[in-house]
Amino acid sequence: MCGRYVAPNQAAIERHYHLGRGQNNPYPEHDRSLRTTFSARYNVTPQQGNPAAYVPVIRHSADGTPELVTMQWWLLPYWSKEPRIKFSTFNARTDKVSSAASYRVPFRKRRCLIPAMGWFEWQETPQGKMKWWMHRPDRGIVSFAGLWDRWHRGDEVIESCTIIVGDANRALSHVHDRMPVIIEPQDEAFWLDTKFDATQALESLLAPLPDDIGHRAYRAQRQTPA
Description:
Helix content is 14%, strand content 34%. By secondary structure, it is an alpha+beta fold. It has a single domain, classed as SOS response associated peptidase-like (hypothetical protein yedk fold, Alpha-Beta Complex). The longest helix has 7 residues, at 10-16. The protein is globular and about 50 Å long. The chain starts with a strand and ends with a strand.
């Protein structure tokens, strides 16, 4: 699963995804007077109903170009009767994204990338849970595969997202059996482009990373026991 991660600052996101400053403002209308840029966050957790905890997301705008926005990290399906839901939707399993009621429409029409510097997992050990920090050796940005949705009732609008998780590859499975799905740079444009409704091709991007990529590109660093 992925229940905690590190979010980059706005400047780093704009550089990584080649977004121009001023192209958009990632804060909701009622928050834009508070600040125009955001800092890195080192302990991002899923929450409902708290705009101050919204996370940075890359999606396609109406004209088909990538844009940076912020969203609630806890997917609220468009069909929900209430602005909060009781079941957990901050992670979407790879075997459910094309069939589950909460995810199948976003999987076809509203895919996104969630920038991260890495994520945390807890390993079960005889001595208790051991915390691990999973990241690239160069501490660079990784793109989690995500889905987003837009809930609208009256004047209230909530845009929200989920991080897709799948089986960990052998390089990282000694820590946890699941990990966020990472979209490699050469596949990011295809993942974001919702003109494509090629389920089989999209699902192929959700497979675990090859073991050699896991060893070469990602590092599991032991942290202080939780």
